[in-house]
C-alpha cells in the first residue's frame, strides 16, 4: 500500500498521468514548407477547398506530410532533370499506403492533390498511370 501511495504521489507531482486534452486535440495538418532561400512555399494546403498544392518550380529536395482525417499524404520532391520534376507521392488511408514515383514537367501551375470530404486522399491533377509504383503495404502490419 505504501508503494502505491508513493507512485500516486509521483504521478501527481510530475504530471506524468494521462493528458486531459488528448481527446480534444485537432489533427496535425501541416500548412506549408518555406524554402528559406526564396521565401516561397513549396507546399500549400487550402483547408476550405481541401486541396494540397505542390509548386514544381521550387528546387528539390523538399518534403512534407499532411495528416488528414483518415490518413495522410506525404510528398517528397527528389530532383529536376530536363525541366521535369521527379517526386514521390504517398497516399495513406488507415495504415494502408502506396508509394508512387512520378515525373511531371516543371510548370507555373502547381500540382493538385484533392482530399475528399471523408478525409481521405482523392484525385490528383496528374495521372497516376504514368507514375511508377514503388511499393505498398500497411503500417499496422510492418
Summarize the structure.
The chain has 142 residues and is mainly β. It has one helix at residues 2-14, and strands at 32-35, 40-46, 51-54, 62-68, 71-81, 84-93, 96-105, 111-115, 121-124, 132-138.
Describe the model:
This protein has 142 residues and is mainly beta. The chain has one domain (27-141). The chain has 1 helix and 10 strands. It has one helix at residues 2-14, and strands at 32-35, 40-46, 51-54, 62-68, 71-81, 84-93, 96-105, 111-115, 121-124, 132-138. It has a 5-stranded antiparallel beta sheet, with no helix packed on it. A 5-stranded antiparallel beta sheet has the order 4-5-6-7-10, with no helix packed on it. β1 (32-35) and β2 (40-46) form a beta hairpin. The longest helix has 13 residues, at 2-14. The chain is globular. 19% of the residues are buried. Residues 1-39 have low confidence and may be disordered. This is Lipoprotein. It comes from Gimesia aquarii.
Give the helix/strand layout.
Layout lengths: L1 H13 L17 E4 L4 E7 L4 E4 L7 E7 L2 E11 L2 E10 L2 E10 L5 E5 L5 E4 L7 E7 L4
Antiparallel strand pairs: 1-2, 2-3, 3-8, 4-5, 5-6, 6-7, 7-10, 8-9
Protein name: Lipoprotein
Amino acid at each position: 500500500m505504501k508503494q502505491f501511495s508513493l507512485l500516486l504521489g509521483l504521478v501527481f507531482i510530475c504530471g506524468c498521468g494521462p493528458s486531459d486534452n488528448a481527446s480534444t486535440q485537432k489533427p496535425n495538418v501541416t500548412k506549408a514548407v518555406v524554402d528559406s532561400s526564396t521565401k516561397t512555399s513549396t507546399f500549400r494546403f487550402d483547408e476550405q477547398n481541401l486541396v494540397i498544392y505542390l509548386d514544381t518550380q521550387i528546387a528539390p529536395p523538399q518534403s512534407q506530410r499532411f495528416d488528414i482525417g483518415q490518413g495522410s499524404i506525404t510528398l517528397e520532391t527528389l530532383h529536376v532533370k530536363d525541366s521535369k520534376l521527379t517526386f514521390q507521392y504517398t497516399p495513406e488511408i488507415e495504415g494502408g499506403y502506396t508509394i508512387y514515383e512520378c515525373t511531371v514537367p516543371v510548370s507555373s501551375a502547381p500540382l493538385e492533390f484533392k482530399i475528399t470530404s471523408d478525409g481521405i486522399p482523392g484525385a490528383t491533377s496528374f495521372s497516376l498511370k504514368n507514375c511508377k509504383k514503388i511499393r505498398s503495404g500497411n503500417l499496422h502490419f510492418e
